[in-house]
Structures are given as C-alpha cells and as structure tokens.
Amino acid sequence: MSETITRTRMGAPTDDPFAVRFAEDQIVGTAMVPAGSHTDRASAQIVTAQRCAVKRNRAALLQEAIALAASNGGEYYYRFPVKNRKAGTTDWIEGPSIGCAMGAVSCYGNCSIEAFPASDTPTHWVFVARFVDFEKGVTVMRSFQQRKNQATMGNDAGRGEDLLFQIGQSKAMRNAICAALPWLTNEMFKAAKRGTLERIEQNPEACRKWLVGQFAEMDVPITAVERVV
What is the pTM of this model? Predict the structure, then answer.
C-alpha cells in the first residue's frame, strides 16, 4: 500500500513520499526514534547530485591531501599497543585520526559532515554522523557509542564529561568520513606515517632530546623505557 504523508522537515511542511518511514515514530534498529529528532532529520534528508561551480579533480585533490598529511605527520594518525595475551605478543591498533579525516574533507570539497547526538543513556552517548557528497549525491551514515566512564586526565568531573562527549562526536565523524572516502584517508594515513619517519631520520638527535624531555615531564625513568623497547 502506497501512502504520502504531509510532514514537517526542519520546520517547513512538505509532501514527501519517503516520509511514511518517519511518521510519528520510526524504528531505527531496535530503538524508537521520535519524529523530528536529530536522528530523524539526519535520516530523512535526501541529497541528490548537484552541479558544482568548481568540479572536483581527483588527481589534484589526492596530491594535495598526501602533501597535507605528510606535513602534519603524527597528528594525522593514531597508534597504540594492545597486548595479545594468547600469543604473548603486542599488536598495534592504528588508523587515520579525526585531524586526518577533516583534512580529507577539506581537500575533497563539495561535501559536508555532521554529527548528531542520537541518544543519551546513564552509561553511553550514541552519535549518528552523516557524510554527504554534494557532487555525486552520495550519503554515508555511521553511528558511534561513547562510554561515559572512560578514563580522562584531571579531577574535574564536569570537564571530563565534556571531553568525552566531544571525543564521541569526533569519532563518529571520523568513522563516517573514513567509510565514505577510504581511498583518500588510507593514502593520507600512509603519507602521515612516512612524514613522521622522514623527520626523525633527518634529525634523530633532536628527536631523542624531545623524547627524553617528554619522559621527564611524565616522571618516567629512561631505564623503564629501555626495558620496554
């Protein structure tokens, strides 16, 4: 049975044949999302391909993005160790950072990225991020669940909660961008790692001094670092 429902989108009434999915309440997974909520608006808005004043040049934007990532180095990727207790080894988790993702959006152009707080429970926030490519009419959405009890630095509980909220929002945006533009963010990630290594190779003594200073600020003995390495 087909049905057209008159609904309000962003405050304006509209006849939308797709709105049947969003009347009164809609089902997203197993959760009921009220009509007019952030998640409803993110899901309901449909963007088709548009004519753009400046047409995207994929080769040029890739070159620009790689140069940008190489110059930013460690700010454009994350990398941390995880112990594999079964194998008795240490694995590394790594990938593009939110800085890398936002750099990719800037180079790609003719697109947008938004993140909406979809739900708030006593233990988690759930964010829905939406990437839209205006030139191609492609939309990619990703959700991210952020724990509220994640450890943060400092003793200010209110500031720690604000920080965790921003972290969850950023991760949701990063995931949506990386899902929409993997060919771009992956190349930027590799370029950022190469850029970091090149800077170390060019001036290893300065890097050693910087590391020693960082460990001193954290009151970590160099002997402890040497044992790990």
Answer: 0.73
